[in-house]
């Protein structure tokens, strides 16, 4: 509750937390409502020949070039997002604590900590991707049924593998976030990483409660935002497909667009609030009661120590 009271009065923190969330991959979540996912038959038609050729050991030059381009692009995006996200995260921690200096935690060191913390995820992906790929190939070629969405059918075939990958990702996020906070406090990289792991092992029940509580609160803010913006986009898409814009009834389309934009931007506000709440909760858990910097926004002017 203390973290919530601190965050509510500081919208600047919402923007910092939102930006860090987006550059570390959250943008893919936010565009889900406006992206029309291909149908299983469309995926089969598009990827079936390539996947079949790859499975039979006959990958062509075009497929190899496409895989290489995607791999390079993903690597660049991950590294750039990690560096920028680490800088934004360090900036937020420095505003939560008035007595730390972001200069002690260069962005590249924070990004390196984040990437090191995700090594278990890399191992889980190396181990699990073949099984997930085989399950996807089976569902595309010989689906068990066509009612359940493709993604859920793939997960249903390899639930333990998917759970392991998600668990490794979540642990990497928590350990990396705690390590960056220790780095901002002035600890060297090895000590920050070891200290982050030890803090979780030393207080397992407290860390699990905080992890579940912050994730539930974050999801409770993100999911309604995505559903609302998705509904607004569906309305706009239906109006456009019905030819409303060409029949002279442009007012309905304009209102639908305004409503969609409002819902989508409102969703970003909710996501920023949830991300800031999660970030401040983990910061105060690992470093102690927050001491926000006075004067960083109108609500903080004259503020002294604020209990965490």
Question: What structural keywords apply?
Answer:
single chain, 308 residues, mainly alpha, 11 helices, globular
Structural domain count? 1
End-to-end Cα distance, whole Å, is 8 Å
Helix content: over 70%
What's the alpha carbon Rg, rounded to whole Å? Answer: 23 Å
Low-confidence stretches: 295-308
Helix-strand sequence? HHHHHHHHHHH
Broad shape: globular
Structural class: mainly alpha
The average pLDDT is: 78
Overall number of strands? 0
How many helices? The count is 11
Strand content: under 5%
Give the biggest sheet: none
How would you portray this structure in words?
The chain is mainly alpha-helical. The protein has one domain (2-300). The chain is built from 11 helices and no strands. The chain has helices at 2-8, 11-30, 40-55, 61-96, 107-117, 119-141, 150-157, 159-184, 189-202, 204-241, 250-287. Helix 1 (2-8) packs across helix 11.
Topology:
Blueprint: H1 2-8, H2 11-30, H3 40-55, H4 61-96, H5 107-117, H6 119-141, H7 150-157, H8 159-184, H9 189-202, H10 204-241, H11 250-287
Helix pairs in contact: 1-11, 2-4, 2-11, 4-5, 4-8, 5-8, 6-7, 6-8, 8-9, 8-11, 10-11
């Amino acid at each position: 509750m203390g973290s919530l009271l601190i965050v509510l009065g500081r919208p600047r923190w919402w923007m910092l937390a939102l930006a860090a969330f987006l550059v570390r991959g959250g943008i893919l979540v936010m565009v889900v409502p406006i992206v029309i996912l291909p149908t299983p038959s469309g995926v089969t038609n598009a990827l079936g020949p390539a996947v079949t050729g790859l499975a039979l050991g006959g990958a062509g030059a075009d497929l190899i070039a496409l895989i290489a381009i995607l791999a390079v692009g993903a690597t660049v995006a991950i590294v750039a997002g990690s560096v920028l996200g680490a800088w934004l995260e360090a900036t937020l921690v420095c505003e939560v604590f008035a007595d730390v200096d972001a200069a002690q935690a260069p962005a590249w060191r924070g990004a390196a900590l984040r990437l090191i913390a995700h090594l278990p995820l890399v191992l889980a992906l190396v181990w699990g991707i073949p099984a997930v790929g085989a399950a996807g190939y089976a569902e595309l070629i010989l689906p068990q049924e066509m009612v359940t969405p493709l993604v859920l059918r793939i997960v249903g075939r390899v639930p333990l593998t998917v759970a392991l990958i998600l668990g490794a990702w979540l642990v990497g996020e928590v350990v990396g976030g705690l390590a960056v906070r220790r780095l901002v406090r002035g600890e060297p990289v090895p000590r920050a990483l070891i200290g982050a792991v030890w803090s979780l092992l030393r207080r397992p029940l407290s860390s699990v409660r905080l992890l579940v509580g912050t994730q539930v609160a974050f999801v409770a803010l993100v999911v309604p935002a995505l559903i609302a913006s998705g509904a607004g986009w569906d309305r706009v898409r239906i109006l456009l497909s019905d030819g409303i814009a060409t029949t002279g009834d442009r007012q309905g389309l304009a209102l639908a667009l305004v409503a969609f934009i409002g819902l989508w931007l409102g969703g970003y506000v909710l996501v920023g609030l949830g991300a800031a709440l999660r970030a401040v909760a983990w910061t105060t858990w690992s470093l102690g009661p927050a001491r926000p910097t006075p004067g960083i926004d109108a609500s903080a002017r004259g503020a002294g120590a604020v209990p965490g």
